[in-house]
Amino acid sequence: MVVPSGDYLGHPFPQRQNQIFERLHDGKNFEIHMASFKLFQRSNLKTRLIMHEMNGRKIKGVASYYLLNSANHTLRIRQIIKEEGIDAIILSNLATPFAYTLIDQVSKSHIPILFDLPDHFPSAAASHVFEARISPAKLLEGMFESILGYIMRRATVVTVASNALGRYAENAGAHRVEYVPNGIAECFLRLHDGNALREKLGYGKEDIVVGYIGSLEFWLDVRSLIEGFALTKRVIPSLKLLIVGSSLYTNYAEKVMNWVKQENIEKDTKLIGFVPYELVPEYISALDLGIIPFDVNNPIAHYSSPMKMWEYLSQRKPVLSTPIPEILDNSDCFLTALTSKDYAKQFLLIAGKSAAVNKKMERGYQKALDRTWANSAQLLGSIIRSTLNQV
User: Fold this and answer.
1) What is the C-alpha separation between 60 and 72, in angstroms, rounded?
2) Quick check: 279 and 315 in contact, CB under 8 A?
3) Is the dihedral of CA 117, 119, 121, 122 positive or negative?
């Protein structure tokens, strides 16, 4: 049974757990039961899994929802474990006080507990209670850090999405840490033609389109990107900025548009919101450069393994990212930028069709073809089996 990081079906696009468990569930080797939390107004995704709706009140606000329903959720999950004959439970980044109570209760059932860590939970959880980077949020983050450490030490196995998270889990005292990387879906395994979409979006053949695809949230540093774009625009008039995505929890998208206006680049910037997941490869194909503008000072960004790393490369597009650890661990495949001047320098290389840039892209493209969700699901399946064999 999986207790996921949030609303499994409510997110606008598939997350790590959707990608892995939909592939792992076959009803023969693995039968996946999923706890269903209702954090969004409606379901946006489909599933083949066995869903179990959690009892409780529908409350606005992620923190309040988990806190006030904690007792009901814990009781419901214990009931499912008993009734369905669950062999192992997989916890993830959910409200830590809930997980703290749950892991103690599940331990009494004497079944293996795997904890999947897709990002730096303490920072993400604190941001749902307080505005990021203010003192109360930092205090709350410290409390969540302590509780998460306790949970990871109690877990039989901790699986992580990035090498940085692996080091974090080991330092917290996890007994066994396994790296299960993020990957790409099957729709990314063939090259798409983005020319028709470029034309539809109003781009000419000579335009150089640089873009970001994903959520617009506080773990990004889009301001440096926009300032770097504005600097380069003075030298390269054909440069265009495409942003595909929007905010999920905060008003960060509004801040992005304010920065665009401040730099007077509205005519050269398109922000078009989320698109259906199956269309993402085509949008990537319409770019000349994919960007990952994560804030290196934000723990969520620092520990992350952005899915766009390999999705951009799967369409043979060069990738420019801020220097977070997962990017630096694969520095032979990625360009990096931190400041607005760094962005401007790299945009000039893209415009000049640098051979060194193309070499990195080709190397990354070959790696991307092996970074599939199918492989990650198979890897997690083998970890679950080995864990059960040791019980």
Assistant:
1) 17
2) no
3) positive
Which domains, and CATH codes, for the chain? 2-183+372-389 (3.40.50.2000), 186-368 (3.40.50.2000)
Q: What is the pLDDT of residue 132?
A: 47
User: What are the φ/ψ torsions at residue 209 (nearest 5 degrees)?
Assistant: -100, 115
Among candidate residues 318, 326, 265, the one with its CA nearest the CA of residue 300: 326
* Partners of 178 in beta bridges: 159
CA distances in angstroms from 182 to 9, 149, 179, 299, 376, listed in the order given: 19, 23, 10, 18, 7
pTM for the model: 0.89
Torsion sign over Cα 59, 132, 218, 141: negative
Q: Are 6 and 94 in contact (CB under 8 A)?
A: yes
CB contact at 8 A, 75 and 45: no
133-147, 161-175, 235-249: least confident range? 133-147
Q: How close are the terminal C-alpha atoms of the chain, in Å?
A: 17
Cβ–Cβ < 8 Å for 155, 174: yes
